[in-house]
Amino acid sequence: MSDLVLKDVRKAFGKTEVIHGIDLHVTDGEFVVFVGPSGCGKSTLLRMIAGLEEISGGDVVIGDETVNDIAPSDRGIAMVFQSYALYPHKDVYGNMAFALRHAGEDKKLINERVRKAADILGLEHLLKRRPKELSGGQRQRVAIGRAIVRDPEIFLFDEPLSNLDAALRVQMRVELLRLHQRLETTMIYVTHDQVEAMTLADRIVVLRDGRIEQVGTPLELYHHPRNAFVAGFIGSPKMNFLAAERQGATTVTTHGSAQIEVPVEARDGTGPVTLGIRPEHVEMVAPEEGTLSGEVLVAERLGGETYLHVDLGNEEPFVVKADGGVMQKTGERIGLRFPPQALHLFDEDGTAFEHRERHALIA
Amino acid sequence: MTDATTQMADRRPTRRRRRRAGTAHIVVFLAPALLIYTIFSIYPLVESLRLSLFDGLDDGSAVWTGLGNYARLLFDSNWSVRFWNALWNNLILFFIHMVVQNPLGLLLAALLSLAPRFGGAYRTLIFVPTLLSVVIVGFVWELILSPLWGVAEGMLSAVGLGFLYAPWLGLEDSALTAVSLISVWQYVGIPMMLIYAALLSIPDELLDAARVDGLSGWWIFWKVKLPLILPTLGIVAILTYIGNFTSAFDLIYSIQGVLGPPDYSTDIMGTLMFRTFFGQQTQIGDIYMGATVASMMFFVILVGVTIYLVGVQRRLTRYEM
Amino acid sequence: MTDTPDTSRSRRGRSKSWGTAATVHAVLLGYTIIALFPVIVVILNSFKNRRGIFTEPLALPGPETFSLEGYSTVLSEGSFLLYYGNSLIVTVVSLFLILLLGAMAAHALSEYRFRLNGILSVYMILGIMVPIRLGTVAILQLMVQLDLVNTLVSLIFVYTAQGLPIAVFILTEFMRTLSRDIKDCARVDGLSEYRIFFEVVLPLVRPVLATVAVFSMIPIWNDLWFPLILASSDATKTVTLGVQQFIGQYTVNWSAVLASLSIAILPVLVLYAIFSRQLISGITSGAVKG
Ligand SMILES: Nc1ncnc2c1ncn2[C@@H]1O[C@H](COP(=O)(O)OP(=O)(O)OP(=O)(O)O)[C@@H](O)[C@H]1O
Ligand SMILES: [Mg+2]
User: Fold this and answer.
1) A83/C188 touch (CB, cutoff 8 Å), yes or no
2) Which of B15, B63, C92, C114 is 20 to 30 A from B248, alpha carbon to alpha carbon?
3) Contact in structure between A347 and A273 (CB atoms under 8 Å)
4) ABC transporter domain: which residues (chain A) (predicted)?
């Protein structure tokens, strides 16, 4: 009913264009996350949807109406800001009731809605407090409550959790998920934290330099990144990249002159390519049994798991995720083996070769 | 929730949709300030500059003289003696402020920034003279220094220094210095406050770091705080310079009158401009020469500000804190 | 041998810090006395009779010397109530205009992107460097043309123009540091740009407004130049000018002179006592860092 559609949306500040034509369709009730490195235009795009930033080109459509020229308050959106943006001179109740009071809503209705939202977020006992008397997490909840009270068709969040400490961030993430399940309202969420993106999103939009790199479900992006940028951005620790040379349609040799067969759609020609594999997919074997082998530079022991940084003669160490109990120490040689279905292959521009088979979870 | 949702949904289609704000509000916000400022500050200044290029005829009309007025002011001995004297006195006034007022302000601010007990009270009280009208300040000091009342003389005698006393304001040699020191007394609160604020804005961690690096009180001030507040000292200097041409008039006018006595030893640009413009005793007022003196003041200030902007401010790195 | 340097250092440290504190207080207290002494002498002596003033200028008023004759002369001879009223009207109205118009302009310059923004910012700030008095010649002509000579309105216009640049400068700097989110949030909540200014921005800049108010008030209340030139008629005299002329006429009546000085000092001190905390926190909040 109230889908959000972006049609070739552009934004220029003065002469510099920072958003270069974005097309996106968000269906009603979806939780969509924008991720990307700092400065890629996530906030700008979100603010354009909100109507806070003028649109230099293209259309923003909400429901069946082009809203380019419509005031933010009339777009049926609510926004939660990173700095919370609570009015310091109003108490929690006043902050939550502000928009409705301003719209001249009935007192009873306002009260009902504020109480309801306070109830959802556990803020009942704080309604009389001023923002400066609240903790960071409580402020964040008030900011969300203020958005809920407006009963919008679309929620917009701009890095709402980045001012919170790690534990609180995990807790609020779960609360946001529950809120989304409960309200079933479209939510658009900006973050540069890929864990937040993976856990919250129905679909993730990866942005770079004002362009969409890929749109898809978290697992699609994880298993079938369209290019090396997305492959490197999604997943933690980062995917390992190895320079390689293409020998046949799908066979490559790396530096260490090992021959590796990658199950991707065949393409003609030869030339330099990049091989990608995630740390968690690498198998550790004895040095002589591995496709490649190298010396352990550092072992990061997190308890439950261990990240081994292995020197394969490249500039960057190759990271292997191993069991928490592995005995290998710095200086030891280990062998590495790559399960074929976990390998990714990228051509010189970074574009991925299509896998021959889709991953079982997304097929 | 469902109640509220349906109510909202019912209302939505009929809601009047406002357009995004245009630019009218920017004009509304800016226009009043711009108008008043332009009409009563910028226009008069430009008009003064224009008038300085004209001369009045006996019938009241004006004729273009180009730079004639300036030539008279600078080279015609009827004018130039007074002009150079006033400019020189202004520079002395500035010099005394720079070597007395600003170091004193720095000293007081540095002491206050050590957060001594009653620091707030000292700060508040030392600022009191700054609030007073120069008229009041002028007369207060005139009374106190006056040989008639003898407060100053009495106090000096009490500590055995009575022989030092002289009616300073009335002596050609000391009048300008005395007036300058009165002005220092009145305005030292301003550099003190500005420097104090700058000192406070230095983060504690930085000072802790210096302490860890082995610096102690005096060295921390010298090596860490002072370099960080240099830009503020630059601002204090340029404010002192500009203040010379404005607030100094009031003080001299109320203590000494418009002639800058004795024998023009306290005559400054402000009093010269006032006399030229309105006339005094034998001299009749001349708006064109008045405008010329004002314009010269404008250029002198401009030179100072330019030196500050080009020469000083650029060299004073402003550190992010 | 090895531990003696330690103890001696710590002892020296303690006595040194005690000595430092004493020096600090001596200097600050000394200067505070210098700052206040003349004011106190004048106020004390204004409550004495002529003989008391001259024989014992530094003594407190005693039963012998106490007298209010100065005040009665001043209040009967001068129209000080009228002058007060004039000063008050001029100062309050000018301040109101400086703060309101200055905040509006600062808001426009700090909040909105538009083509002339940069130029207008510099233009508004020029006035800080160029004293408005330099335009006196033309201001007087202008006031004659507008038929505003010897009216309080003329003073109000001039003081507003004089106070705007520094107000705009300080407020713009401060408003730039305000979170953009909160204004955007108000926009999403449906407030018009005008209501955002009045209901969101103004409350947030209140402490800075107080600082600007005090800083702008001092030169207005104390100004001698423009009242002398633009509004020296009896009906429009300000306190500062009134006192100045009164003293000129009564140079021999010292009790009257001292009383009139005290009358002019007191309201400023009272206002300062009320606002001083705000003033200092406003300055130290960094609004005047320049
Ligand atoms: N008001 C502005 N004027 C000029 N350029 C701007 C403005 N706002 C943003 N930009 C530029 O637009 C680009 C995108 O900025 P944006 O704030 O959307 O980045 P972001 O993806 O949200 O980054 P972050 O993760 O750091 O918040 C940046 O290069 C930024 O410099
Ligand atoms: Mg951002």
Assistant:
1) no
2) C92
3) yes
4) 4-234
Question: What pLDDT score was predicted for residue B172?
Answer: 74
d(C-alpha B157, C-alpha A215), whole Å: 91
Q: Are residues C13 and C134 in the same domain?
A: no
- Please report, for chain B, the start and end positions of each structural domain, with discontinuous segments joined by +: 2-44, 80-320
Pure H helices in A52-193 = 92-102, 107-121, 136-149, 166-183
Domain ranges within chain A, ordered by starting residue: 4-228, 237-357
Model pLDDT, residue B13:
41
B9-13, Cβ contacts within 8 angstroms, sequence gap of 24 or more: B12/A76
CA distance C208 to C202: 10
DSSP B92-134: HHHHHIIIIIHHHHHHHHHHHTT--TTHHHHHHHHTHHHHS-H
C159 and C283 belong to one structural domain: yes
What is the predicted pLDDT for the residue at B239? 85
Asked if B44 and C31 come within 8 Å (Cβ–Cβ), the reply is no
pTM of the full structure: 0.78
Angle between helix axes C69-77 and C254-282 (nearest 10 degrees) is 90
Same structural domain, C181 and C259: yes
Q: What average pLDDT does chain C have?
A: 82
The predicted-structure confidence for A283-327, as pLDDT tens digits, reads as follows 999 988 888 889 999 999 999 999 999 998 888 899 999 998 888
Please, are residues B259 and B275 in contact by the beta-carbon 8 Å criterion? Answer: yes
Burial pattern B143-170, b for ≥16 Cβ within 10 A else e, equals bbbbeebbbbbebeeeeeeeeebeebbe
Q: Nearest bound ligand to CA A193?
A: 1
Tokens 């401010």 locate to: B313
Predicted confidence (pLDDT) at residue C187 exceeds the cutoff of 60: yes
Longest dimension (CA), chain B: 95
The per-residue pLDDT for range B73-127, each reduced to its tens digit, is 888 887 888 889 989 999 999 999 999 999 999 999 999 888 788 888 888 889 8
Domain shared by C238 and C116, yes or no = yes
Which pLDDT score, from 0 to 100, does residue B320 have?
53
Q: Which of B3, B17, B19, B26 to mutate to test the interface with A (most CBs of A within 10 A)?
A: B17
What domain range is C40 assigned to? 5-45
Chain C interface includes B241 (CB < 8 A): no
Residue C139 located in a structural domain? yes
Ligand nearest to the CA of A35: 1
Superfamily the domain B80-320 falls into: MetI-like (1.10.3720.10)
CB contact under 8 A, C190 and A81: no
Say if residue C92 is in the same domain as residue C33. no
Assigned CATH topology for domain A4-228: Rossmann fold (3.40.50)
Closest by Cβ to C289, choosing from B129, B198, B278: B198
**In sequence order, what are the beta bridge partners of B315?**
none
Q: Is A84 on the interface with C (CB under 8 A)?
A: yes
Identify the CATH assignment for A237-357 out of 3.60.40.10, 3.30.450.80, 2.30.30.100, 2.40.50.140: 2.40.50.140
Assess contact for A226 and A217: CB atoms under 8 A: no
Residue at token pair 């001039």: C158
Predicted confidence (pLDDT) at residue C40 exceeds the cutoff of 70: yes
Does C100 share its domain with C19? no
DSSP class of residue A209? T
Selected residue of A69, A75, A100, A182 to mutate for chain B interface (largest B Cβ count, 10 A): A69
CATH code of C223's domain: 1.10.3720.10
| A236-278 tens-digit pLDDT | 899 999 888 887 777 777 766 678 888 888 887 778 889 999 9
The listed range with the strongest mean pLDDT (B186-200, C203-217, C253-267) is B186-200
Contact A85 C179 (CB under 8 A): yes
pLDDT attached to residue B54: 84
